[in-house]
Amino acid sequence: MSKNNKKIIVSIASVPTRMEALKASVQSLINQVDCINIYLNNYQYIPGFLKNPKINFFRSQDYRDLGDIGKFYFIKNIKGYHFTCDDDIIYPPNYVDFMLSKLKLHNGFVSCHGAIFNMPFKSFYKSKTVFHFRKKIESDISVDLVGTGVMAYDASKIKVPLTLFENKNMADIYIAIFAKRKNIKCTVVKHNEFFLKDYYIENLSKNYFIRLFQKFKNKLMLENIYKQFKNNHKIQTDLVKENKLWSLYNSTKLD
C-alpha cells in the first residue's frame, strides 16, 4: 500500500450522529491505505466496524472534544502521505492514487474542495468563491483555502503543528493561514462531478415524501460546521482580515 516507501495514512474526526456515514467513509478508504486514524468526539461506545488492525481510534472522553481538529491529533507521529478526510463523504476506489498523482504535480496541500477570498473581504461565508467537492472542477486551481475533508499532503515535508488550531471546527481556515505564512501552495484539483459523494445525499429515498422527511431530519439532527457558524463567523472573518494580503484575488488555472 505504501508509495515511494511512504505510508498512506488517513485521519478522520467524527461525531456520534454520523456513525453510519463514518462506516461508509471508512469502507470506501480501508483498502487504499496503510492506516486510518479516527478521533471519536463524544462517542459513548466504539462502533464494531472500527475493530480492524488498520484502524487506530481515540475517544474524546480520554482526551477532550477536539471537533474537526481531531483529524490532526495524530500529526506529530505521521511521516508519510497524510490524507485528512470527513466522516460523511464516500471516496472513490481510485481516490488515493488520484490525489497522489496531483500531489506529485503540485506539492503543498491538494484538495478536491476549496475557495478563493474575494476582495474587498467582508465575511468568511459570503466573500469567497467556492470550488465544491461534489461539483465538476474544470482544471487544477490555485486557491487561498483548501477543504481539509478531502485534502492530502506529504507529512514528511510539511509539519503542521497541533498548536496551530486555536479554535475547534475551524481547521480549514487555520490550514489556509499556515500555508500563507509558510508559502505553501494550495491547490483544488480537477475532477468530475460526483467523483466524491455525500453519504446523506446518496442515501435519500426516491420516494418524494420519504425524501422530504429525510432532508428535514438531516437538517434538524445532523451536526455540521456550516450550521454551527453560518450566523456567527466573526472569528473566521477576523482571522482572514488579520492575515491580509492574500496572494490570490482571482482563480489561477494551473493546467
Output the number of helix runs.
7
Radius of gyration: 18 Å
- Runs with pLDDT <50, length 5+? 248-252
CATH superfamily: Spore Coat Polysaccharide Biosynthesis Protein SpsA, Chain A
Overall 3D form: globular
CATH architecture: Alpha-Beta Complex
Neighbour order of strands in the largest sheet: 3-2-1-4-11-6-12-9-14
CATH fold annotation: Spore Coat Polysaccharide Biosynthesis Protein SpsA, Chain A
Question: Can you give me a brief rundown of this structure?
Answer:
With 255 residues, the chain is of the alpha/beta class. It has a single domain (8-200, 228-253), classed as Spore Coat Polysaccharide Biosynthesis Protein SpsA, Chain A, CATH 3.90.550.10.
Task: Give an account of the 3D structure.
- With 255 residues, the chain is α/β, with parallel strands linked by helices.
- The protein has one domain: Spore Coat Polysaccharide Biosynthesis Protein SpsA, Chain A.
- 26% of the residues lie in helices and 20% in strands.
- The chain has seven helices and 14 strands.
- The strands form three sheets. The protein has a nine-stranded mixed β-sheet, covered by helices on one side. A three-stranded antiparallel β-sheet has the order 8-7-10. It has a two-stranded antiparallel ribbon with strand order 5-13.
- Helix 1 (19-29) links the parallel strand 1 (8-14) and strand 2.
- The two termini are 29 Å apart.
- The model is unreliable at 248-252 (pLDDT under 50).
